[in-house]
Design brief:
The structure is a single chain. The protein is of the alpha/beta class and 366 residues long. The chain folds into 2 domains: 53 residues; 264 residues, TIM Barrel (Alpha-Beta Barrel), CATH 3.20.20. Helix content is 38%, strand content 16%. Strands 7, 8, 9, 10, 11, 12, 13, 14 and 15 form a 9-stranded parallel β-sheet that branches. Strands 1-4 form a two-stranded antiparallel ribbon. A two-stranded antiparallel sheet has the order 2-3. The longest helix is centred in the first third of the chain and has 52 residues.
């Protein structure tokens, strides 16, 4: 009898172990199916998004063909570029006058490298990426009004916050696309389809590093020039269609001109703009950049640092006061709900106060 009980106990244990192993096998198969589905459909999903955004475009490869006048920020472009043929399409229902910007990249404004496409000045007519990719703005129509520019930092890191910005923000507000987002080019195309010009953050060391770390490709004061240029080339190739770079909050790297000069010179050489978003001025940086005849601006007001309703309202008032005093002002904010709520309410009051909202690129012209 004991032998029978022992045998039954052994069979029960063996059966339980066998069922456990089978259960693990089923779980493994399910996970494998999920992984396979995601892996083999991610490219299709990405392409689906691109197809959804696609405009009717025409690429003219003959750079020596007779020029055709195309209105773009008061400048004449040749037909040697990608031209958006569907720019009358209304995409943003909240702002029906917002038209998509031209498709990117523009022919002749990039060079191909192993890392990706890197912006450059077009040889045939010296058109710069900054001039081609900035949002058009009528300076004459804004005469007599104080100009205010706003930009959202790190678009693309949060899909929910970024899509909310696309749906809710006026097209005059510029988008700073994070190079660490999963698909920077997709976010750039989406932003431009809603009428927003785009920028990249300049991933450099701040005065709060390492507490405030701007990522693994941060250009550092104590790094070699070769290492910093390697990181900068990665940044250059992380997206297409951007007008220039915006520094992080209190960028200490830019105060070290010996370290920053090779980066600054390359930005200027490639026809890109620099917006210094440090909360303090840097006249040496400004004069150095302007000496190279490159677009430059300061945007020292971070609207939501610290992130509170009271502070945001105070900073918006500071922007108004600065614009009233100087004729122009700019502010940067992060993709967080409290900032969106306060800024959207505030933007609606600007016209009656005698202010006009303009893209960030306009600050380099003032």
């Amino acid at each position: 009898m004991d032998a029978v009980k022992q045998r039954l106990s052994h069979i029960k244990a063996h059966f339980s172990k066998k069922m456990f192993v089978k259960g693990l096998g089923v779980v493994f198969v399910l996970y494998a199916l999920v992984f396979t589905t995601v892996f083999f459909t991610k490219d299709a999903t990405y392409q689906k998004h691109l197809d959804k955004l696609a405009n009717k475009t025409t690429t003219i490869n003959d750079l020596h063909a007779p020029s055709v006048d195309i209105e773009h920020s008061g400048e004449t472009q040749t037909n040697a570029q990608v031209i958006n043929q569907d720019n009358q399409t209304v995409i943003n229902k909240k702002y029906p006058n917002a038209k998509p910007l031209d498709a990117v990249p523009v022919a002749g404004l990039y060079q191909e490298t192993p890392q990706g496409l890197i912006p450059m000045v077009r040889e045939i007519d010296k058109l710069t990426p900054f001039k081609a990719y900035k949002r058009p703005f009528d300076m004459k129509a804004a005469k007599g009004k104080k100009i205010i520019s706003l930009a959202i930092y790190d678009i693309g890191l949060s899909q929910i916050a970024s899509e909310s910005a696309l749906r809710s923000m006026p097209p005059e507000i510029s988008f700073i696309i994070s190079p660490y987002s999963q698909q920077p080019d997709l976010w750039t195309r989406q932003a431009r389809s809603y009428g927003h010009e785009t920028w990249l953050p300049l991933t450099v060391e701040t005065d709060t590093f390492p507490r405030h770390d701007v990522g693994p490709h941060t250009m550092m004061i104590q790094s070699t020039q070769r290492e910093n240029m390697r990181k900068f080339n990665w940044l250059l190739s992380s997206g297409v269609g951007y007008a220039g770079f915006v520094s992080p909050y209190n960028a200490r790297f830019l105060d070290s001109l010996g370290d920053a000069r090779p980066i600054i010179e390359d930005i200027a050489k490639r026809g890109l703009a620099l917006v210094n978003a440090s909360s303090y001025g840097n006249e040496t940086l400004r004069s150095t950049f302007l000496t190279m005849n490159a677009p430059y601006a300061d945007a020292p007001i971070w609207i939501d640092i610290p992130e509170s309703q009271e502070n945001i309202r105070s900073k918006l008032k500071e922007i108004e006061d600065s614009a009233t005093k100087n004729g122009y002002a700019a502010g940067i904010f992060n993709p967080v709900p409290v900032s969106y709520q306060e800024i959207l309410k505030w933007v609606e009051t600007l016209e009656e106060k005698g202010f006009v909202l303009a893209p960030l690129s306009v600050q380099t012209q003032l």
